[in-house]
Amino acid sequence: MLLTAKLMLDWLKENEMATRLESAVARVIAEGKVRTYDMGGKDSTLEVAKAIADYAS
Questions:
Q1: How far is the C-alpha of 16 from the C-alpha of 39, rounded, in Å?
Q2: Read out DSSP for 9-34?
């Protein structure tokens, strides 16, 4: 869902924010500290979204 939002930001020519969002998603996944159940973790989607928002801001 968040990467879909990134595509929307690209379409709106909000390139800087699109890049920041994509980088934040990649960073959270690469770190592996915050993961939802489907990724082998125990965190909620809200916790993952908050971690991504922290890096994107």
A1: 28
A2: HHHTT-HHHHHHHHHHHHHHHHH-SS
Beta-carbon contacts of residue 7 (< 8 Å; ≥ 6 apart):
18
Whole-number pLDDT of residue 18? 97
Domain of residue 20 covers: 2-56
Give the pLDDT of the chain (57 residues) as one tens digit per residue.
999 999 999 999 999 999 999 999 999 999 999 999 999 999 999 999 999 999 998
Report how far residue 19's alpha carbon sits from residue 43's, in angstroms, rounded to the nearest whole number.
25
List the structure tokens of 3: 């990467």
Q: How many domains does the chain contain in total? A: 1
Which amino acid is located at 33 in the chain? K
Q: What is the pLDDT of residue 17?
A: 96
